[in-house]
Amino acid sequence: MNKIYNPTADSWASILERPTKTVNDIEGTVKEIFAAIQKDGDLAVAKYTTQFDGVSFENIEVTTAEIEAAIASLPADLKDAIALAKANVETFHKVQQTTRVSVETVEGVQCWQEKRPIQKVGLYIPGGTAPLFSTVLMLAVPAKIAGCKEIVLCSPPDKQGNINPAILYAANLCGVTKIIKVGGIQAIAGMTFGTNSIPKVYKIFGPGNQYVTVAKQLATQFGVAIDMPAGPSELLMVADDTAVPAFVASDLLSQAEHGTDSQVILVSTSKSMMDAVENEIQSQLEVLPRKAIAEKAIANSKLIFVENDEIALDLINEYGPEHFIVCTANNDFYVDNIENAGSVFIGNYTPESAGDYASGTNHTLPTNGYAKNYSGVNLDSFMKSMTFQKISEKGIQNIGKAIEIMAEAEGLQAHKNAVTLRLAEIKKRK
Amino acid sequence: MNKIYNPTADSWASILERPTKTVNDIEGTVKEIFAAIQKDGDLAVAKYTTQFDGVSFENIEVTTAEIEAAIASLPADLKDAIALAKANVETFHKVQQTTRVSVETVEGVQCWQEKRPIQKVGLYIPGGTAPLFSTVLMLAVPAKIAGCKEIVLCSPPDKQGNINPAILYAANLCGVTKIIKVGGIQAIAGMTFGTNSIPKVYKIFGPGNQYVTVAKQLATQFGVAIDMPAGPSELLMVADDTAVPAFVASDLLSQAEHGTDSQVILVSTSKSMMDAVENEIQSQLEVLPRKAIAEKAIANSKLIFVENDEIALDLINEYGPEHFIVCTANNDFYVDNIENAGSVFIGNYTPESAGDYASGTNHTLPTNGYAKNYSGVNLDSFMKSMTFQKISEKGIQNIGKAIEIMAEAEGLQAHKNAVTLRLAEIKKRK
Q: What reaction gets catalysed by this protein (chains A, B) (predicted)?
């Protein structure tokens, strides 16, 4: 752990720097796979599945029988836990529903804004050691509430050609319309171009490794939208003497176990709290199954002492953390003034893992400083807003002159004509 | 004009195909300029301004004296027109303001969502023949309402080193905090990296030519967000015998004058309306100052006859027009069922130019089929939504068990520990 005391503001940028990743060496591979799948469709998908996942099989769409087997295999207590989490995620995303916003800007000029669902969305769920069924909830629940017609889920098969039953269970529960056993770059390429087995979608959501991240970036060059650019997960916590060192340590460690590149930062106005947390981390770390991973992330972590809450806040806003936990005597100050953060966790009994699983907020959040310019996934992520306007004869008479003058000043005569013709016709009739 | 009668659904994709542009040849230039400006800052900016705009000068920030001169030079009727347009854009974007959305998902678990402004935004306004001061209103007004702290505007200088006074006037009126005389790739690169003269921003908005479009795409690889990918402007109009041929023709032409690559499509259930519109276009075209441009766009335009409104709607949703004008006996059917469109104009007295200038809706809209997955610029474009959660002892007791089970099933023991520790501490105390 790196302890830093009272860093000057001009050193913040270097202290808070995230590890930069070069994607150039990956880009070639990603482009090659995209080109192959655009050209050869399912044939190319099968080839890369064999190559990367070490398995080959005929039907890549998950069958009803497979889903039924997954449902039967899952322990009851896990089903109950998923049900509770799903209910909370539903509750929180349903209250985000908005109604049409309408206003008569001037007499006779009615304007309104409505959100309508993105019709076809694709959800990517990584495979590997941790089967992220919680991410299925976080993406499929709002997609369903938004009213997306087609909800496609892609996840890589294991060596036996199966997807983890908890992922299948959650996908089925949340109304995913099609589950495809395909992972990595080939999944993103498949949803970008469409193949016989994989539907083409309009927007792709979900986490993934570096390959998936680069593939999602490339997908945007082919007309597909993505939820947000991804980076390693990160947590910044601010804690003073009102915090509980053991709790603080447990939160920092729960972030650290994600990956060796996870970012863990503690900001504190108390040196003794910093020391106590450091000790707690060492003892809690010992018993973790993912100790090897967490240890590396913790080695790169930073404990930063600052003199007061104002300085802490400025530093935190400069960083823009994905997850931001606040445990201080002054929580409202942070909550009211935080400008850049993905999700904020307030108080001693609000661990980050609550938001990861079951509080109801979404865990798909902007990392890598993107909290400065991107929202986390929310209901609106699955919709687009459209505007409407309906102008009466009276209305065009009210704004027509202004349009004519502005169009002429911009040198767009035909724009002006469209109004002039209408005004003349109204005048002639009257 | 290409008249197409009753096209079969399997031919829609090719009929509705937009001209594809290859950006590969531009990409090299854009990357080179980005690298130079990242390295040499203002020095490189000056070099490219000389090269591309044919002008060089010391101070690239617009001064108060220049703004005052612009204010003095602008005709009163244009100022009045801008004032009216600004008021309507303000009215429409102010009603889009939302309050915090809050819910207790289960007892003791309070979750809420708040939108906070993106602190630093950059607005790009093209130069050239048409000084798009209307776009200044469309971007700066919502940025101001959102509460963005820094609103930077870049626009290329003319041969005398000036920006069009109407652009300066509108920028000053709308609260732009800094106006910089820089255009094209160098403007986008400048706002991406920041230079001594050009502030680094978090999100870049605004239209531009192919170079600007590719530069904005590249900017996203350096952590900057953009409003949306751009493409040539387009209009699809559906009209039956209740429409006025002269009005329809004037709307199609106002789209056509934007550029030779503008997309203009008329869908109709009336063959006689199609013929009448064709004649009207010919006669109105003759007197247009931008006839040469409009003529080329019109030559590529399509008039498509279909049997009924249902088929028309399917075809329109497949296309996803940026601008969609509806003039039929059945307007509500289209308005209620349109799934993909940027902005919708309803009835005989609602020309597209109303939305371009003064109705109040935003004219920065998704083109190129992006209406399927992107919103047009709106108030939320200048904000990001953040989530918050505050859990009480009771709350963590209510959801703790579910978190423990899910975290364990995902193999994330430290996530589980963060809850277990808290539950144990509560139990011990009680």
A: L-histidinol + 2 NAD(+) + H2O = L-histidine + 2 NADH + 3 H(+)
Distance in angstroms (rounded) separating the CA atoms of residues B38 and B48: 13
The two beta strands, B323-327 and B343-346, are: parallel
Test A358 with B202 for CB contact under 8 angstroms: no
Q: Write a three-state SS string for B282-325.
A: HHHHHCCCCHHHHHHHHHCCEEEECCCHHHHHHHHHHHCCCEEE
d(CA A131, CA A90): 21
Rounded Cα gap, residues B427 and B430, in angstroms: 5
Kindly identify which residue of chain B lies nearest to residue A203, measuring between CA atoms.
Answer: B373
> A341 burial class (0-12, 13-18, 19+ CB within 10 angstroms)?
buried
Q: Which of residues 258-297 of A touch B (CB under 8 A)?
A: 258, 284, 288-290, 294
Cβ–Cβ < 8 Å for B201, B234: no
Asked if B82's CB is within 8 angstroms of A410's CB, the reply is no
Q: Is B322 left (phi over 0), alpha (psi -120 to 50) or beta?
A: alpha
Can you list the domains of chain A with their CATH numbers? 2-20+231-360 (3.40.50.1980), 24-226 (3.40.50.1980), 392-429 (1.20.5.1300)
**pLDDT surpassing 90 at residue B334:** yes
B316-339 per-residue burial string, b: 16 or more CB within 10 A, e: under 16: bbbbbbbbbbbbbebbeebbeebb
**Sign of the dihedral through C-alpha A371, A376, A382, A388:** negative
Question: Any known ligand binding at A370?
Answer: no
- CB contacts, 8 Å: B425 with chain A: 244, 246-247
pLDDT by residue (tens digit) across B115-165? Answer: 999 999 999 999 876 789 999 999 999 999 999 999 999 999 999 999 999
A322 is catalytic: yes
Q: Cβ of A85 under 8 Å from any chain B Cβ?
A: yes
Structure tokens at A314: 């400025």
Q: What is the DSSP string of A324-351?
A: EEEESTTHHHHHHH--S-SEEEESTT--
The helix (H) or strand (E) run that includes residue B232 is none
A383-412 core/surface letters (b: 16 or more CB in 10 A; e: else): bbbbbbbbbbbebbbbbbbbbbbbbebbeb
Q: A287-306 pLDDT, tens per residue?
A: 888 889 899 999 989 999 99
Whether B335 has its CB under 8 Å from any CB of chain A: the answer is yes
Place of tokens 């070639």: A28
- Listed residue (B327, B128, B252) closest to A414, CA to CA: B252
Model pLDDT for residues B153-162, shown as the tens digit of each residue: 999 999 999 9
Task: Verify whether the Cβ–Cβ distance B340 to A403 is below 8 Å.
Answer: no
Q: Fill in the DSSP letter of residue B222.
A: G
Establish whether B278 is a catalytic residue.
no
Say yes or no to pLDDT of B179 above 70: yes
Distance of CA B397 to CAs A310, A324, A328, B428, Å? Answer: 33, 22, 22, 13
A410: chain B residues, CB-CB within 8 Å: 130-134
Q: Would you say residue B27 has pLDDT above 70?
A: yes
Are A119 and A148 in contact by the 8 Å Cβ rule? The answer is yes
Residue B44 has pLDDT above 90, yes or no: yes
Is the pLDDT confidence value at A19 over 80?
A: no
Interval B46-70 mean pLDDT: 95
Q: Tell whether A41 lies on the interface with B, counting CB pairs under 8 A.
A: no
Structural contact between residues B109 and A359, judged by C-beta atoms closer than 8 angstroms? yes
User: Alpha-carbon distance B386 to B382, whole Å?
Assistant: 13
- CA nearest neighbour of B344 among B207, B267, B238: B238
Q: Tokens 């100050």 map to which residue?
A: A333
